[in-house]
Amino acid sequence: MVQLGCDMSFNQTCYGLIPKNEVLQDYLYYALRGSLSTMRSLTYGTVFETITMKTFDQWQIPLPSILEQQAIACILGALDDKIELNRRMSRTLEEMARALFKSWFVDFEPVRYKAAGQPPPGLAPDIAALFPDSFEDSELGEIPKGWNITTLGKICELAYGKGLKTSERRPGKVPVMGSNGQVGWHDEALVRGPGIIVGRKGNPGIVTWIQSDFFPIDTTFYVNTKIDHVPLTYLFFALKYLNLQNLGADSAVPGLNRNIAYMSKLLLPFPYILDNFNKITFVLFEKIYKSDQLNIDLINLRDALLPKLISGELRVPDAERIVGRCT
Q1: Within a domain: residue 221?
Q2: Nearest-angstrom CA–CA distance, 263 and 301
């Protein structure tokens, strides 16, 4: 279920609902979300759950006054707006880190400026001084002078995750990581964070960063470094640029061939440049983590308030005080 604030088109697999005069659109959206369990009890079908137009004739929702609807939608909408703002900030921070990686280690902008006799824009003089001022040929093409080429297998290990069925997971705050990101929670970590997860089966080659301790399941690899001066922050973006999705194993289930991945060529810059990259990007990743943690709290608060506000169990002034204390 989604709410769109613009014109839309949709196919025959879904419905578009138009509220009547006595119902506000925003309130209708939250009221329907708050009664999804009722909707599911009215579905039919063994393979796919299906609803018909008649479902909506039986689907009852509370209908307070327009002013009450406005207040409820305003409270829940404010929480959703804050959640979306935090998500955008996290995407912006990761894009900043990605842009820095591309500038330093793909486009070699600091080296190009120095080779042209110009100071690299946006770089402090002490950091700019760390970069060479010329290039040399290599098997990967032109690279900064003095930098090396190595293989992925020489600088890190892709370690196997461990099986953990949904029925075996216990309530906790440890993220359970699958091949395409987080798939649940557990009360025990397998790996100390921060870390990198690489999809092994199902979504092979997908690279995910995790700031906290985590539990990677058996559809994943997690990264162990072999060289102390090569930070995880550098490996995270380097792995993304390797296009690991194309290194699949020959089987019915798509999978990443670890031994083939190990042969991938990787640029190895000077250690002190990697150290400065790590210092800058780790701060960005820490901010992303804090933003994501705040969103978990906001989502839990919204999901707790929603059914109570819709049912009338919690009055608007009380909800406003709760939201005010938590945001």
Answers
A1: yes
A2: 47
Q: Is residue 141 part of a domain?
A: no
Q: In 3D, which of 210, 206, 236, 232 has the Cα closest to residue 219?
A: 206
Q: What is the pLDDT of residues 150-185, one digit of tens each?
A: 999 999 999 999 999 999 999 999 999 999 999 999
Instruction: Considering only residues 312 and 207, tell me which one the structure prediction assigns the higher pLDDT.
Output: 207
In order, the DSSP letters of 240-265 are HHTTGGG-B-SSSS-BB-HHHHHT-E
Cβ neighbours of residue 165 closer than 8 Å, sequence gap 6 or more: none
Counted domains in the chain: 3
Q: Are residues 246 and 152 in the same domain?
A: yes
Q: Which helix (H) or strand (E) holds 322?
A: helix 316-326
pTM: predicted TM-score of the whole model, two decimal places: 0.84
Contact 39, 59 (CB under 8 A): yes
The more confidently predicted of residues 320 and 158 is: 158
The pair of structure tokens assigned to 50 is 């299906």
**How much helix, strand and coil, in percent to the nearest 5, is found in the chain?**
45, 15, 35
Q: Which helix (H) or strand (E) holds 220?
A: strand 220-225
| pLDDT tens string 48-62 | 667 767 666 667 778
Among 254, 278, 100, 285, which Cα is nearest to 180's?
A: 254
Which of 124, 151, 287 minimizes the C-alpha distance to 230?
151
